[in-house]
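To the wet lab folks,

You asked to see what we're planning to order before we commit. Fair enough. Below is the target structure as tokens, and below that is the sequence we designed to fit it. If anything looks off to you, flag it before the synthesis order goes out.
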């Protein structure tokens, strides 16, 4: 199977996964309408959520296709989103500092990331899973201010009654949504 075909299969599975759609809906509900925006950036690869962001804010969103641990971002943006990206980066502080550099004054950054889970249910694809305090320290080191935050469950309530591991997930599987601005 070629890389492009493989990527399409992954995207198809991701964009139709019920837990992903559940998180996206909660994320959309967290976002606040903003006026007079000219440029948006969605950190990471383009997803169905990127299109929904464009519809919500009535602007085009660029997306990144670079190594976010070492490569600089380009452009200037009124709004930047980084949904479930930080945990995949070796150096999330570098990425936050880069985001701050390209975020316009009075711009807004929305991020989401899973909170820490015990090893038995931790994702093998995450370099980091932060506690809430660790994440707040990281954000402070990058000179962002937290305007709003919300902790959400990852799956619908009924999912957590499907076995022992899902019951563990009921307690630990949470995502934090943040609205940030520059100090």
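Sequence we intend to order:
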């Amino acid at each position: 199977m070629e890389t492009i075909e493989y990527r399409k299969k992954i995207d198809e599975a991701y964009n139709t996964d019920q837990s992903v759609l559940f998180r996206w809906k909660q994320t959309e509900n967290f976002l606040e309408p903003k006026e007079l925006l000219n440029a948006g950036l969605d950190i990471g690869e383009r997803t169905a959520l990127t299109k929904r962001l464009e519809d919500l804010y009535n602007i085009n969103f660029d997306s990144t296709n670079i190594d976010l641990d070492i490569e600089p971002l380009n452009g200037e943006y009124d709004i930047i989103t980084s949904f479930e990206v930080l945990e995949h980066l070796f150096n999330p502080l570098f990425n936050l500092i880069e985001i701050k550099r390209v975020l316009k004054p009075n711009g807004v950054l929305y991020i989401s990331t899973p909170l820490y889970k015990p090893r038995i249910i931790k994702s093998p694809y995450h370099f980091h899973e932060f506690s809430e305090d660790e994440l707040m320290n990281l954000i402070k080191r990058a000179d962002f201010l937290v305007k709003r935050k919300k902790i959400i469950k990852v799956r619908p309530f009924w999912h957590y009654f499907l076995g022992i591991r899902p019951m563990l997930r009921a307690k630990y599987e949470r995502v934090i949504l943040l609205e940030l601005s520059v100090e």
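Structural context that might help your review: The beta strands are 40-42, 61-63, 77-83, 103-114, 144-153, 174-182. The chain has a mean pLDDT of 84.

Thanks,
Computational group
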